[in-house]
Amino acid sequence: MFLEYCGGGKELMVDNHERILHLENLTIAFGGLLAVNDFSLTIYRGDLVGLIGPNGAGKTTVFNLVSGQYIPTRGKVWFDGREITGLSPDRITALGIARTFQNIRLFGDLSALENVLVSFHVRTSYSFLSPMFCFPRSRKEERRIREEAYSLLEAVGLGNFAREKASSLPYGQQRRLEIARALATHPRLLLLDEPAAGMNPQETRELMEFIQRIRRDFELTIFLIEHDMKVVMGICERVAVMDFGIKIAEGTPSEIRNNPRVIEAYLGAEAQ
Amino acid sequence: MFTRETRELLFTFVLFVLLMVGVWLAQRYLNAYLVRIFNTACIYVIAAVAYNLVNGITGQFSLGPNGFMAIGGYTVALLMLPVVQKQEVYFLQPLIWPFNSFSFPPALFIFALLLGGLLAAGGAILIGFPTLRLRGDYLAIATFGFGEIIIVLANNLIPLTNGALGIKGIPEYTNLWWTVNWAFWTVFLVKNLVNSSFGRALKAIREDEVAAEAMGINLFRHKLLAFALSAFFAGVAGGLFVTLISTISPTLFTFSMTFNLLIIIVLGGLGSITGSTITAVLFAFLQELLREVEAPHVIGSWTFPGIPGMRMVVFSAILVILMIFYRRGLFGRQELSWQHVSRILWWGKRAHGGQS
Ligand SMILES: Nc1ncnc2c1ncn2[C@@H]1O[C@H](COP(=O)(O)OP(=O)(O)O)[C@@H](O)[C@H]1O
Ligand SMILES: [Mg+2]
């Protein structure tokens, strides 16, 4: 295949300068189940790309492969012109990919502010000994990141909840906090796994506006999972569709809407 | 005019001065029995706070502190025992080189303690390296095994440890100055660490490992560091303990030591440093009280035989009751901070109002 051919040489670096994420024949098997099968996709800088498909299609698994939670059985992941297949999640985050989780995974017992502060930790420049002995350097930095974290919370509309325990926040705000926490790692690519899950149409519309706003303000590329097809149609420039681990279609929303295979997959899922 | 940090540091300094005055008074006027309990209390504080850093803050279930205390204890004993004394103690098999040929002068006691701590930390890295990479309860099993192995080694490495007979006549360097200072600085350092960005990362690991890693935290590095640091202080506590009671043998640091510490940290609240500090002191006194129950007493013409083993029964009962009614311990994950203290002291006056 063309992509496999590209995988080796310098060529890729050259024609890659616009690509930010490039998935090459990703495959992962759990026992006998091919959760993701030969999945290829390219995302360009600044894009907002949707990944849709019925439940169990393998969407979350694609995210887990990109963010390093799973290591693919076969295939490669490229980010910003460099191969990141097999790197650990923390290394991948440090390189500039952040994510949220389908089932919210906040640090429940920590405050909203602390949740965001955790993401600043990797970029703190002092060793653990510095705060132990009260060196001024760590204090100064702590003050700086607190201010930064606080303004990030305000930017996502959670300024008033900074001291609130994460687990005590209402559902919609937990979702926002998860996005704020991901933004605090200073990503270039943000992976959002069903951010609108459990929200009513009104909340969903607000969230989609919010996502477009952070894309602009933080100069992000966004890769977004949604299982309700209608939600992404409005905001994504391109959409990929998965079913049974396979990419069955890719294109603009209007192309996708009229694709017979997509209609079949969704009707099939609804008929179950 | 002062920032909150500066003010808190000032409070802490005042507390330190008060403690030192207290020690000075206690050395002069307190009876030896009470001084000894306070010494033990401080050693429990060091070991418990260190233990809580791993089990409460980082959320990793270790059962190892007795092993680390033993390493610290034997190290300090071997370094501080005078050479003449060594020849007397090791009569079954002579002590191996180089320990048979030197011992630290009293002025180097602090270095013996630090070395004991460092060796214990080395032991922690040794077992942490293979086990902390894995998810699940491997750490509990490995640390439990480690503690048992240390005891077996203590029994059988006779040329080094003098086997089951143990080492007697270790100079009693430990006094209230040492124990109170170490306890104070342990709490101070660990609390600073817990309140830092590093400490937040440890708590994040406790709350959700997957999310913590996805936010860029290297799980292995952070767990290992917390574990090694914890073992360091446990080693120091072990070293202080043997120079307090002047003897060490394999039975001193068995699993029941870990069990005691587990009660202390659960009682104080897993994740609360100040909670562990307070319950460690309470525990030391409670233990003495129950020692009375275990010993025979003569009241008038009636002889009360005492109930040996009563302590373990009572402690186990406390643990069970706690687990049922008070699962989060006295403090939960709250810390007693200077803000709380000043709120209690200046009740209603709002002396330290919001402006910092
Ligand atoms: N860790 C795992 N072990 C076993 N099976 C898994 C694992 N992760 C995902 N799967 C399976 O892979 C398939 C795809 O799951 P997922 O990616 O979560 O779907 P989606 O996000 O599209 O709803 C499902 O059948 C799921 O059961
Ligand atoms: Mg999913």
Topology overview:
The complex is a heterodimer of chains A (272) and B (356).
Chain A: H1 2-6, H2 11-15, E1 19-30, E2 33-44, E3 48-52, H3 59-66, E4 74-79, E5 82-83, H4 89-95, E6 97-99, H5 112-120, H6 129-132, H7 136-155, H8 171-183, E7 189-193, H9 201-217, E8 221-226, H10 229-233, E9 238-243, E10 246-251, H11 253-257, H12 260-271
Parallel strand pairs in A: 3-8, 3-9, 6-7, 7-8
Antiparallel strand pairs in A: 1-2, 1-4, 4-5, 9-10
Chain B: H1 4-29, H2 32-57, H3 65-80, H4 83-89, H5 109-131, H6 138-156, H7 158-161, E1 167-168, H8 176-194, H9 197-207, H10 209-214, H11 219-245, E2 247-248, H12 255-268, H13 273-294, E3 297-299, E4 302-304, H14 310-325, H15 338-345
Antiparallel strand pairs in B: 1-2, 3-4
The structure holds adenosine-5'-diphosphate and magnesium ion (MG).
The site of magnesium ion has 3 residues of chain A, from helix 3.
Task: Walk me through what this model shows.
Chain A is an alpha/beta fold and 272 residues long. Chain A has two domains: 1-96 and 187-272, Rossmann fold, CATH 3.40.50; 104-186, P-loop containing nucleotide triphosphate hydrolases (Rossmann fold, 3-Layer(aba) Sandwich). Chain A has twelve helices and ten strands. Chain A has helices at 2-6, 11-15, 59-66, 89-95, 112-120, 129-132, 136-155, 171-183, 201-217, 229-233, 253-257, 260-271, and strands at 19-30, 33-44, 48-52, 74-79, 82-83, 97-99, 189-193, 221-226, 238-243, 246-251. In chain A, strands 6-7-8-3-9-10 form a six-stranded mixed sheet, with helices on both faces. Chain A has a four-stranded antiparallel sheet with strand order 2-1-4-5, with helices on one face. In chain A, helix 5 runs parallel beside helix 8 (171-183). Chain B is mainly alpha-helical and 356 residues long. Chain B has helices at 4-29, 32-57, 65-80, 83-89, 109-131, 138-156, 158-161, 176-194, 197-207, 209-214, 219-245, 255-268, 273-294, 310-325, 338-345; strands at 167-168, 247-248, 297-299, 302-304. The radius of gyration of chain B is 21 Å and the shape is globular. Residues 351-356 of chain B have low confidence and may be disordered. The chains are: A alpha/beta (272), B mainly alpha (356). The site of magnesium ion has 3 residues of chain A, from helix 3.
